[in-house]
Design goal:
This protein is α+β, with helices and mostly antiparallel strands and 147 residues long. It is 34% helix and 27% strand. The longest helix has 24 residues, at 123-146.
Amino acid sequence: MQILCSLVDGDKQNGIERTNLDVKYLRGERDAKNLTSGKYVTANSLLILVDGENSGEVFRTPIDGYQGSTFKQLLINGNMNEEYVLQVINLHRKVLRESKVGSAIPHLNKKLFKAIEVPIPPYKEQQRIIKAINNAFMALDIIKESL
């Protein structure tokens, strides 16, 4: 994973009012709160929770704003299919959640995150794999609805 992704902070800005992209806002559990300074990320950025109970959970930002304090921006190598890498992360989410470090506030084990081995098939094969995963999820949704 280390060669495919990097965990960074957005660019620090001051004096510009923007939405605080914290976890409760991104989950739709709370209305937007504005800040006048923070670490700026653009709409459609990927943020990964690095602090707290659900470390390893990934969100896509719906708007420009300031990243919440419990996040890092997740940058994926442009030569990789983004959905493919996100599915690999999701596959390991349970292990990431159960392997947090720190005693007071649990943190994402970044060493473990970076050590995740990711098979790197050709780009077309990554697309085929994502299509197969999406088809399987659609079939599961249909089954759930019929129960």
